[in-house]
């Protein structure tokens, strides 16, 4: 039954257990996966119960599968795209190129872009 799930797939599951290290999520009647505490949300999680409760349905992304019974999941990965889209204060635009060009080469482009954005 595990073969219907793939890494990268976003699915809905139900929280069946909470431990200090993460959440157990039932993907169907036979399979469950683990959301490690670091994959619950961005930032520090001191008390998992502040973020989730048993029985709640959650959207999770499958981040790895090591055999049919060891599935690693992430809630945080499903929220990142929504946060990027709704965050007007994002520090990097999608068309921004990252590299090691010298400041002398990039500065005129940046000034031109900033001038356009101010208008």
Automatic annotation (TrEMBL):
Single Gene Ontology MF annotation: structural constituent of ribosome
Coiled coil start-end: none
UniProt domain S1 motif: residue ranges: 8-76
One GO process term, biological-process aspect: translation
Matches recorded under SMART domains: S1
Highest taxon in the source lineage: Bacteria
Function: Binds mRNA; thus facilitating recognition of the initiation point. It is needed to translate mRNA with a short Shine-Dalgarno (SD) purine-rich sequence.
Protein name: CvfD/Ygs/GSP13 family RNA-binding post-transcriptional regulator
Organism whose genome encodes this protein: Ornithinibacillus sp. 4-3
């Amino acid at each position: 039954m595990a073969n219907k799930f793939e890494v990268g797939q976003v699915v809905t599951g139900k929280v069946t257990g909470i431990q200090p290290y993460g959440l157990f999520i039932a993907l169907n009647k036979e399979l469950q996966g683990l959301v490690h505490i670091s994959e619950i949300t961005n930032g520090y999680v001191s008390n998992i119960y502040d973020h989730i409760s048993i029985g709640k349905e959650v959207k999770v992304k499958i981040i790895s599968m090591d055999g049919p019974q060891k599935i690693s999941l992430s809630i945080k990965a499903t929220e990142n795209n929504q946060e990027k889209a709704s965050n007007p204060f994002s520090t990097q635009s999608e068309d921004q190129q990252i590299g090691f060009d010298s400041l002398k080469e990039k500065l005129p482009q940046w000034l031109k872009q900033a001038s356009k954005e101010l208008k």
